[in-house]
Design brief:
This protein is mainly β and about 170 residues long. It has three helices and twelve strands, in the order H-E-E-E-E-E-H-E-H-E-E-E-E-E-E.
Length: about 170
């Protein structure tokens, strides 16, 4: 018979610790309000449906950037590459010019497509649902692109990393 570790009470610190054992990719959600580019780092991006094509991500309820992107109805999910750790840090901060020194071009829907990413998903806002201290966003995918031979930036147990190059 298998014995399991002690079951922990789900307080915020324990949630962060245990869920940190789930490896995730990191993305920058971008939009453009007609005046300036907007963006924030996000590690909660997932595919929801292939037909119709939906993705989901979860910005913090305290995000000042998400309401500005939401108001446009259009966005891009830029999946960061292994060598874009500093870019992640730049978009994870509050305030300031997050696009300073960042190379990007407008996507088909006008949202910024960051250079050097693993993949970009262009989408339109479909649904939102409040969920505790975050918002669950479901977006309808309108376009996709992926780079070849580029490894993703991963987050695991509170640290950044990438795939093991020696793995098959």
């Amino acid at each position: 018979m298998t014995t399991h570790p002690e079951l922990l009470v789900p307080d915020p610190a324990t949630m962060r610790h245990v869920l940190g054992h789930f490896c995730t990719g990191i993305a920058v959600i971008t939009g453009h309000d007609g005046v300036r580019p907007l963006g924030f780092a996000c590690q909660s991006v997932t595919s929801v449906s292939l037909e119709p094509p939906y993705i989901s991500f979860c910005p913090a309820s305290t995000s000042a950037t998400w309401p500005l992107i939401r108001s446009t109805g259009r966005l891009a999910v830029n999946v960061l590459a292994r060598d874009q750790r500093e870019l992640c840090a730049q978009f994870a901060t509050s305030g300031g010019d997050k696009f300073r020194g960042v190379s990007w071009s407008p996507g088909h829907n006008g949202s910024p497509v960051l250079d050097g990413t693993v993949a970009t998903i262009e989408a339109e806002l479909e649904y939102e649902h409040g969920a505790g201290d975050h918002t669950i966003v479901v977006a309808h995918v309108t376009g996709l692109r992926a780079a070849r031979d580029t490894e993703p930036l991963l987050y695991f147990r509170g640290a950044y990393g990438g795939l093991d190059a020696s793995a098959p």
